[in-house]
Design a protein that fits this description.
There is one protein chain. With 470 residues, this protein is of the alpha/beta class. The chain folds into two domains: 14-112 and 266-469, Zn peptidases (Aminopeptidase), CATH 3.40.630.10; 114-249, Aminopeptidase i, Domain 2 (Roll), CATH 2.30.250. The chain is 28% helix and 23% strand. The chain has helices at residues 20-23, 26-45, 49-62, 187-191, 194-197, 220-233, 268-282, 313-325, 331-339, 391-403, 425-429, 454-469, and strands at residues 66-67, 79-84, 88-93, 104-109, 114-125, 128-136, 149-156, 162-167, 205-208, 243-249, 254-256, 262-265, 291-296, 342-345, 349-350, 372-375, 379-380, 408-410, 420-421, 434-439, 441-443, 450-453. A nine-stranded mixed β-sheet has the order 1-2-3-13-4-14-20-16-18, sandwiched between helices. Helix 2 packs across helix 12, helix 3 (49-62) packs parallel to helix 7 (268-282) and helix 8 crosses helix 9 (331-339). It is globular and about 85 Å long. Keywords: Aminopeptidase, Hydrolase, Metal-binding, Metalloprotease, Protease, Zinc. Pfam families: Peptidase_M18. InterPro entries: Peptidase_M18 (IPR001948), Peptidase_M18_dom2 (IPR023358).
Length: 470
């Protein structure tokens, strides 16, 4: 017998979560597979902010972008980029409409939590050579114990020569590690709170164990390491003082799950948003409004410094673009361009993890596979340090995404009193522009192996492209 039961009319009024995989066509699934292979390659090349800028610059150049400083006047369709000290960049595609009407801006960050070498890192103790570190950003320190680590960075010699350093990524190369305490003797350690069980000053990295010279030579384990570094890179111990060397997980990004539905890897906060925004910008021709991408440094430590979003680099870049587009440029004209712009703060959010469901409020938590995440506010507890997007802004982005067939969801950074975090949204909003956080949901954020859904990566790419073209 046929089911004659009718649905209640009010059902059409209810909001219902969807899974992106249910909405994807086969051609989109094929595109996702290829797109995420290229994304994993980017993650493997871009384990530091300097490497991320270099990879982004290469991609922009291959996509027809040119250094901004080499172009005196800009016209619709022009594609330009600008690099800030090798750690941040802006890129733009000039639109048909005058810049005075504002830009469509996507802002993400390239830095990720890690271990940095101290200025004087090398010492020896008990027949071993070690590096002292200072952790960067918000980490759970125990996650960095007993994992293979690679050295990435640069050494700048007194004569100005810049020497790139990468050790631990190629097959057969040595890796490094922070040793952990065996459970048999860890009673006192395990009785402590997790935050106190691993002091920051104990994150010392094992780098050598074969001595130089004979037994009478002082510091011979340390000297043996210096001999290796000098042989490989031509550097001495003093050169480490003017170096920026980071320790990052040595493993590559990988597919996760029997069905390969997830990407696992280091640094997806926030290189996943950086990469899809880069791809979205490069994929457009001549937009209605000028489309601009900013990839900033130092977000994980407060966005300070002259490569962070609090620096003048962001406004200087827009000023340079505006001056090349607008006759009669002035400071007031720049302020109007900024105030008339709208922006997506492209950053990740927490995905609901069934293993730790108690830290989120499930009605307002993002799910992996639920699409790109709109985050109206971030901050902590009483929305401290958030820009809190206006209802009109949320509605505008809803319109753009719905019209483009982008599956989206909403998210929060955990329960109200659980904790929280911030993004660069409030720094963009300080210029008067409308802004909302928008990005990919992750499991294991700030860990050494973060997890993202391939469907969400695609929907974020699709959403960013639609926003830039609107």
């Amino acid at each position: 017998m046929a089911d004659t039961k009718q649905q209640h009319p009010a059902l059409s009024l209810a909001y219902r979560r969807q899974n992106a995989w249910d909405r994807l066509r086969q051609d989109e699934k094929n595109f996702i597979a290829a797109f995420c292979e290229e994304y994993k390659d980017f993650l493997n090349k871009a384990k530091t902010e300097r490497e991320a800028v270099a990879a982004a610059q290469a991609y922009l150049a291959a996509s027809g972008f040119h250094p901004l400083e080499k172009i005196s006047m800009l016209k619709p369709g022009d594609r330009v980029y600008s690099i800030n000290r090798g750690k941040a960049l802006t890129a733009a595609v000039i639109g048909d409409n005058p810049a005075a009407g504002g830009l469509n801006i996507i802002g993400a960050h390239l830095d990720s939590p890690r271990l940095d070498l101290k200025p004087q890192p090398l010492y020896e103790d008990e027949g071993m050579a070690l590096f002292k570190t200072h952790y960067y950003g918000g980490i759970k320190k125990y996650q960095w114990l007993s994992v293979p680590l690679a050295l990435h960075g640069v050494v700048v010699k007194a004569d100005g020569r810049v020497i790139p350093v990468v050790i631990g990524e190629k097959p057969g190369e040595p890796v490094f590690t922070v040793s952990d305490l065996l459970p048999h003797l860890a009673k006192d350690q395990m009785d402590k709170k997790l935050a106190e069980a691993v002091p920051g000053e104990s994150l010392n990295v094992l780098v050598g164990g074969i001595p130089a010279g004979d037994e009478d030579l002082k510091d011979r384990f340390k000297l043996a390491v210096l001999e290796k570094l000098n042989h490989w890179y031509g550097i001495a111990e003093e050169d480490l003082i003017s170096a920026e060397i980071e320790l990052v997980p040595a493993w590559p990004a990988r597919d996760v799950g029997l069905d390969g539905s997830f990407v696992g890897g280091y640094g997806q906060d926030d290189r996943v948003c950086s990469y899809v925004a880069l791809r979205a910008l490069a994929g457009i021709k001549t937009p209605r409004r000028t489309a601009l991408l900013v990839l900033a440094d130092k977000e994980e430590t407060g966005s300070n410094g002259n490569t962070g979003m609090e620096s003048a680099f962001f406004t200087n870049s827009i000023a340079e673009i505006t001056a090349r587009c607008m006759p009669g440029y002035s400071e007031l004209a720049l302020r109007r361009v900024l105030a008339n712009s709208r922006a997506l703060s492209a950053d990740v959010n927490v995905g609901l993890d069934p293993n730790f469901g108690e830290v989120v409020e499930k009605m307002n938590a993002a799910r992996l596979g639920g699409g790109v995440v709109l985050t109206k506010y971030t901050g902590s507890r009483g929305k401290y340090s958030t820009s809190d997007a206006h209802a009109e802004v949320v509605a505008d982005v809803r319109r753009i995404f719905n019209n483009a067939g982008v599956l989206w969801q909403t998210g929060e950074l955990g329960k109200v009193d659980q904790g929280g975090g911030g993004t660069i949204a409030h720094l963009m909003a300080a210029h008067g522009m409308d802004v909302i956080d928008c990005g990919v949901a992750l499991l294991g954020m700030h860990s050494t192996f973060e997890i993202a859904s391939k469907a969400d990566i695609y929907m974020t790419y699709k959403g960013y492209k639609a926003f830039l073209l609107d």
